[in-house]
Amino acid sequence: MSNPRGPDGRMFWASKIFALLMLLILVPVPSRAATSSNHTVTLIVPSIREISVSGSFMTITMGQPTAGSLPGAVVDNSAKYSFTTNVSSENCKVNVKVPDGTMPNGVTLKMDLAAPPVGNVTSITWENGVNANNVYYALVSGITPQACPNLGITLTLNPKGPTPPPAMWVEVTFTFALFPESW
Amino acid sequence: MRKHTHFSWILGMAVGLVLIPFSVFGVLSITSTAAGTAFTAALSGGAGTNLATPVSGPASDCLINIAGCSSNADNWRVDVKRNAGTMPAGISISVKRTGDGTGGGSISGGGAFQSVGTTDASFFSGAGNRTDVPVQVQLDGLSVTIPTSAGYTAALTFTVVDT
């Protein structure tokens, strides 16, 4: 009988080596591990309360009265106001003021603001000794975060009393603040 | 004695073959040179306007490096994803590759802003080591309805994949 391994076992080792090689070849080459790098994205959202009024100056001219009567009321709605806020607060309001002593006798000035989509409006009337005291009055309240462009401002100048009003200059200041905590 | 010689030879060959993938190909790696991008919300045009959106960071805000390639023909792909973090739900994050960086291989894709989701998606691909590949980050969906915050955050994860 012959020895199938051969006299020195070469057949045995050859088959072992072949089997091992086949095993190693068939073992899948491991894919290199993926590595990662992180990048942080940050969004800062500051408190925003901005308001603007179109036109710094506007002139309201009363018509020439007929003899023996006062001039009629004049309505002007050429001015607009815009505001944007991202503050959600019941105290966020649009406020206006007229300085002391700037309203003459014989006339009233009424201001109406168009309402924003969310918010409540009220009007104010200034006359000498009434509301014209350098104090802010809230005309728009209940404002939620919103951007509102070009909302109407209606000013009504109305003679009052027996004397025709003189030429006058009134400065109205708008603020958009957390009423009444800060201005 | 002869059996020992054979055994040593086989063992050495086996170890060598097992180590080939690591010794020849090395470890593919990705790094970025910026820790993050910060955006500050602002109005697009003053009172009456909404927040500007979309807003983009600097073109070279994040520089990505790919290393460990065995040659300029060693292919890879960079995937990108984000986590939810504390970012408001309506905010989307996009990324764009704004340059090729430097390197002897190749690079392609990622040249337009693509929205980043919470699962890995292919961003760009290439071959060979690459240095300082610039990436720009963009945010969209900003609105005044987003509550004020000192900092909403989300993390982008760039992953290099052997292809």
Q: What would the principal axes of the Cα set say about the shape of chain B?
A: elongated
Structural class of chain A: mainly beta
What is the N-to-C succession of helices and strands of chain B?
HEEEEEEEEEEE
Number of domains of chain B: 1
Counting DSSP E segments of at least 2 residues, the number of strands of chain A comes to: 11
Provide the structure class of chain B: mainly beta
The quaternary structure here is heterodimer
Instruction: Give the rounded overall mean pLDDT of chain B.
Output: 88
Low-confidence stretches of chain A: none
Fold and architecture overview:
The complex is a heterodimer of chains A (183) and B (163). Chain A is mostly beta strands and 183 residues long. Chain A has 2 domains: 1-29; 49-178, Immunoglobulin-like, CATH 2.60.40. Chain A has 1 helix and 11 strands. Chain A has one helix at residues 10-26; strands at 35-45, 49-53, 74-76, 80-85, 92-97, 107-113, 120-121, 124-126, 137-141, 146-159, 173-178. In chain A, the strands form 2 sheets. In chain A, strands 2, 3, 4, 6, 8 and 10 form a 6-stranded antiparallel beta sheet that branches. The longest helix of chain A has 17 residues, at 10-26. Chain A starts with 9 loop residues before the first helix and ends in a 5-residue tail after the last strand. Chain B is elongated. Chain B has one domain (28-162): Immunoglobulin-like (Sandwich). In chain B, the strands form 2 sheets. In chain B, strands 1, 3, 4, 6, 8 and 10 form a 6-stranded antiparallel beta sheet that branches. Chains A and B meet through helix 1, strand 1, strand 2, strand 4 and strand 10 of A and helix 1, strand 1, strand 2, strand 10 and strand 11 of B.
Chain-wise SSE layout:
The complex is a heterodimer of chains A (183) and B (163).
Chain A: H1 10-26, E1 35-45, E2 49-53, E3 74-76, E4 80-85, E5 92-97, E6 107-113, E7 120-121, E8 124-126, E9 137-141, E10 146-159, E11 173-178
Antiparallel strand pairs in A: 2-4, 3-10, 4-10, 5-9, 5-11, 6-8, 6-10, 7-9
Chain B: H1 2-25, E1 29-32, E2 36-40, E3 55-56, E4 62-67, E5 75-82, E6 92-97, E7 106-108, E8 114-115, E9 121-127, E10 130-140, E11 149-162
Antiparallel strand pairs in B: 1-4, 3-10, 4-10, 5-9, 5-11, 6-8, 6-10, 7-9
